[in-house]
Write a structure and sequence with these properties.
Shape: elongated
Number of strands: 5
Order of helices and strands: HEEHEEHE
Strand order of the largest sheet: 3-4-2-1-5
Strand content: 15-25%
Structural class: alpha+beta
Radius of gyration: 22 Å
Distance between the termini: 58 Å
Helix content: 25-40%
Length: about 110
C-alpha cells in the first residue's frame, strides 16, 4: 500500500476532517531580487569605524529586514536595514558576497 492509499484510507476512517485539510498549502512566493547588489565599505561619518554597505535592493522593507537579520546572525555582528540599504558593522565584504551568493542573490564587491 503506497502513501496515497494510506492517506485515502485515513480520510475514509475520519469523515469529520474537512476535505483538503491534510494537503499542504503551497508556500508563498516572495519577490526575488533581479538586480545586482553592490557591496562596499564606508568610513565617513562613523568616527573612523568601518561599515559594509549593501546597496541596490529592489525588495520590500520587511524582506530587507529579514535578509539583514539573517546576515547579522551568520556573521555574528551588528548592523541595520533602512532606506533600502543594509549596513553591517566592520569590513566584511568578502564574507557577505559569499553569503549573498549562497542565498541566491547576485552581488559584487566594490
Amino acid at each position: 500500500m503506497n502513501w496515497l492509499e494510506q492517506l485515502q484510507q485515513f480520510r475514509d476512517n475520519n469523515p469529520e476532517l474537512p476535505e483538503g485539510s491534510l494537503t499542504p498549502e503551497p508556500p508563498e512566493e516572495k519577490p526575488r531580487q533581479k538586480a545586482r547588489i553592490d557591496v562596499s565599505i564606508e568610513r565617513k561619518g562613523r568616527a573612523g569605524k568601518t561599515a559594509t554597505l549593501l546597496t541596490g535592493w529592489e525588495l520590500p522593507d520587511q524582506q530587507l529586514l529579514e535578509i539583514a537579520a539573517e546576515l547579522k546572525k551568520k556573521l555574528g555582528t551588528g548592523g541595520s536595514a533602512r532606506g533600502g540599504d543594509i549596513l553591517i558593522q566592520g569590513d566584511r565584504r568578502d564574507e557577505i558576497v559569499g553569503l549573498l551568493g549562497s542565498m541566491g542573490y547576485k552581488a559584487r564587491k566594490i
